[in-house]
Amino acid sequence: MDKLETLLEQHFGFTSFRPGQKELVQAVLDGRDALGILPTGSGKTLCYQLPALVLDGLCVVVEPLLALMDDQVARLQNAGQKQVVTLSSRLTPPDFQWLLHHLNQAKFLFVAPETLMRPDVLNALAALSINCFVIDEAHCIAQWGPDFRPAYLRLGEAIKRLHPRSCLALTATAPKRVQDAIVSELQLQAPEMVIASVDRPNIFLGVNQVANPAEKQVSGIELIQAVNAATIVYFDTKAQAETWAKALQQKGVAADFYHAGLPSQQRELIQRRFMAGELQVICATSAFGMGIDKADVRLVMYTYAPESLEAYSQGIGRAGRDGENSASVVLLAPGDLSRQAHFAQSLPDPQLIKTIYAHPDAYTDFDDPQIALLQAYVQSGFSQAQVQQLLAQRADEKMTSAQAVATYLTNPGCKRALWLRYFDAPTTEHHEQCCGELLGPQIAALAKSSLRVAPDSDWQVDFARLFNEV
Q1: Which of 64, 65, 232, 463 has the most CB within a 10 Å radius?
Q2: Is 291 left (phi over 0), alpha (psi -120 to 50) or beta?
Q3: Could you tell me where the DSSP H helices lie in 307-349?
Q4: What is the dotted CATH code of the domain comprising 3-195?
Q5: CATH 3.40.50.300: which residues of the chain?
Q6: What are phi and psi of 25, to 5 degrees?
Q7: What are the residues facing 385 on neighbouring strands?
Q8: What is the mean pLDDT of residues 15-32?
Q9: Where is the signal peptide (predicted)?
């Protein structure tokens, strides 16, 4: 057993690394930058946790969502690591400032890009020794940065300011152009590149054609009942998520809906019930999923054409994390692809950019996503010319992504082969459990997960019981 395996066993109890882990751990220990594209469930977090426990200084981890931060903090604390902190909007201003002035006592810091770019946060971190600057879910730089979180596009500036010993970017899905964008935006220096195949052979890649939206719901519910195991169903509107959840409940299926319009306490309860096996089905918008590590999800269903193959790959990667046979399926109706192409063009045009930049203070209270995006760019310090260039480039990328999705969904040949080529991964032999229409034979091959369905009850009562309030 060499030195790295000894450290692995000492800190985590494992005797061997999973593919890709050892090379990334060694790069961080050597003080080199690295980019790791590893499949969902391959243990990406260990790639920074192990070096950070060995090296002196602070490990800064940039996460896109509070749920991801909570998950990583809980895992580290359960493993006995108590020097873990999160800087977020949930802290009161006094608590935030107290933590900011005591970061020298921490081993791990989890932070969102918007919080990281605050001047007081950057000033505090600049005074510390940072052993590793980690960007988890690094594909967000290319996909979320231009669309609605421009702070992601300033991470390279933060790295330049903080001078970390090494930088480590991690994600599960990134084709070559996204890999290049990550390296360029973060200004990684001769990074160690560990690129694994995006393929998940245990997940059937299904596309089922339906005649209309009404048939989509009927067919979808029939598939969910036939699979009869943990299922995530994705929608592009909150209303559809709610409608399907109620329809499933009427069929006797333990289902609930999840979207950003719900109170955070209710979202937390729904997620916990799903993780515990008390709910069979989550009907959700894209607000649900990232960081959800439930091993026995057997079906991930899309009721609309995904915005990109990257987003689709992230979504279906929530199925079959235990390695057992599982499935994904897109329910495709006439008009879905044109609807998706329309959404791909929904970025601010040059005239709106000019208007907002001329009088930014006059548009602070508008409930409009395009105006909100431009306000975020203004607050992040981007010039009007920079924004016009970034959004023009992003519009082209989104159309290219929409065309790739359309080709995938309508291609009569092997969908897995096309999908893998998109991600520059080696193709595999086609077989019955590979891809196509999700039908009885494929459903019969799925592993059955154990569901523990709780009696029907009001969610407020459940939540109060969960936190010992009744």
Answers
A1: 232
A2: left
A3: 309-316, 336-344
A4: 3.40.50.300
A5: 3-195, 203-339+404-455
A6: -60, -45
A7: none
A8: 93
A9: none
